[in-house]
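Internal tracking record. Fields below are filled automatically when a chain is submitted to the structure queue. Please do not edit lines marked as system-generated. If the sequence contains nonstandard residues, flag them in the REMARKS field before resubmitting.
Queue: standard
Priority: normal
Entity type: single polypeptide chain
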Amino acid sequence: MKKKVLKGAAGVVAAAVLVVVIYLAYVFATYYRLEDNLEIGVERFGSGAADDVAKIGEDYLIVSANIGFGAYSDDYSFFMDGGKESRARSAEAVTENVSGSMGAVAGQSPDIILLQEVDTDGTRSWHVDEKELAMQELAKEGMENVDYTYAQNYDSPYLFYPFLEPHGSNKAGIVTISDMEMSNGIRRSLPIEGGFMKFLDLDRCYSKQRIETDNGKELVVYNLHLSAYTSDPSTATNQLLLLFDDMIEEYEKGNYVIGGGDFNKDLLGNSSEYFGCGELEDNWAQPIPEELIPEEIQLIAPVDESRPVPSCRNADSPYDEDSFVLTVDGFLASANVEVIEAKVIDTGFKWSDHNPVYMEFVLR
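SYSTEM-GENERATED OUTPUT FOLLOWS
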């Protein structure tokens, strides 16, 4: 009898090991990265014409918003941050959160919009096409004739964790929108960690779009979402060096350069000093080393010194006054771009774990 029990237990263990091996083989077999310098189509939403060119000396506004795949209402916590949830609570919640985020963005009357964590088909977002939803919501707010690009940076195999509510398989990317005519969208692949760590990060990239100016040059717009969780610090450094080299090349041609998005870096240097939120024990957001930033490029950390508002919260628990907050969303601008103002839009993290940020600028 004892032998039968032991034999049966061994069979169960062997079956479990086989399942794990098959799953790992599936994860490795389905993993891929998109090629570098991939052309991404510039599409039009709406039937009207966009403005042809950007004008020198005119004020423009750019807004960046990480919409958190439509899941992060202010009472939401995420398992990878130490919280409890892995998916949006429902398709209706996704629609409500994306719609709220787009209302906050459109309320600034922006000329350029940079969006991150936009799911196009995901278990975690109930298979809502958030790119299409975002465009429809912006149209309702008056932004109905725009150019846009989409660059995929996430296409994961089915993640069977957490076990009671698996994160599932998900596709997501970054979206760039403008009421000016954009051309020549390019997706640039960023360095990521190798080995097993590559399965824990996105297919990191930035997108690059061109807008003609009325002095014969171009405004080159970069949308980015850099790595947060890296065991090798050189990965973050190499991502920035690639981005800066690209920007300097465009600036030396006489073009105007603006970048923005989720840096996953503490853009204020030490956000806890601004917001009095204490330190995070395992702080994933480190400052950008100043020596990496070229002289010709300005790092713009959006902040109102008299009333500072953070751009991001740690989602280990629902948002409250004791939450760890910081500013990781911001902008880069070349020396021929005059920055008038840059601030965080205070939404109280009602629809995302990020508040949108904006920058007002003039091409000189």
